[in-house]
Amino acid sequence: MVCTMSFLRALLRTARLPRRSPRGAAGLLADDAVLLDAPDERLSPALVAAALGEYGPAAKLLATTREGAEWENRDRYLGRLVAFARNRDGWLTAWLAAAPHDPDALLVKAELAVRRAWESPVRAEQLRAVGPLITAAAESDPRDPVPWRLALDHARGTHATHTVFEALWEEAVRRSSHHYGCHVAALRYLSAAWYGSHRECFDFAERAAEDSLPGSLVRALPLRAAFALMIEGPGARTTSVQEERIDVAADLAITLSASFAPGDPWPAEVRNLLAFVLVARGRWEAALEQFRRIGPHAASFPWSSVSDDPLGRFLDARDETVLRVVAARSSAGRADRGRGPRGRGRYA
Length: 348
Description:
By secondary structure, this protein is mainly α. The protein has 17 helices and two strands. The protein is globular, with a radius of gyration of 22 Å. The two termini are 39 Å apart.
């Protein structure tokens, strides 16, 4: 058994590192140019309006994604709108009062209820109570896979059997065979922390990635399986086979990341996860490249898994990466200068 968690334990530390790395020389943005979970140009107006108690822009945004079958965008925007509604839901209350059968309003209502139920000390009981809301959202537009992602999360929290899970999974993929959110929800159910194992989790993720379309975020699913294994505990130990699967997952995600332009907000969460895994594996040069590609788009996940200050942890990991790369390059340069002709040592 080989322990791979030495760098991960560094990520788990709560003490902040001083800002001392040569970020500019490494092609990285200044700290104050990095934003956490920054909304894109389509979501921003909806959030601004919601802050004013107005639901119109959010309704229009979700209706557009539904009508255009933009299921990935729909799921992502839903998540951000619901995160806002957890503390300020007056706009949603007004929307439901004005259009109680609107498919988009019903979806937001169901997602918000599920998230609040997950926070309850009696989670399973609360989740069972919100089941009809998920059903209503699913029935309001039978094409939409997003309510089935909710149903998969619901199944995990209510201790649903594998038989129930598989039936829900079939409904999800029948609507969108490569939907990233549904795949992530299924992966969580199959994880060792819930109702599966690390092997089952990796097997599912690797098959899904192999079957996915070029450029699909599903190709990063094995990276999610790797993350689930790596955060099992700071003292966790991994086998050489597991470490190989982690590195293969990272390599696949590196290829995926390279298919998007640097600074593109769409793969930002995947790139943040990839940087996390590469740092934990001590693959500093590869991690630095991902921090460059992330640009200003820091994401709460995965950094919030190891810190209450996800932006601070992101910046700390970025600085640590630069320092490690600079040190390694400096050491390599000294070694090269110490060699004579034909690669022989100076004093050979």
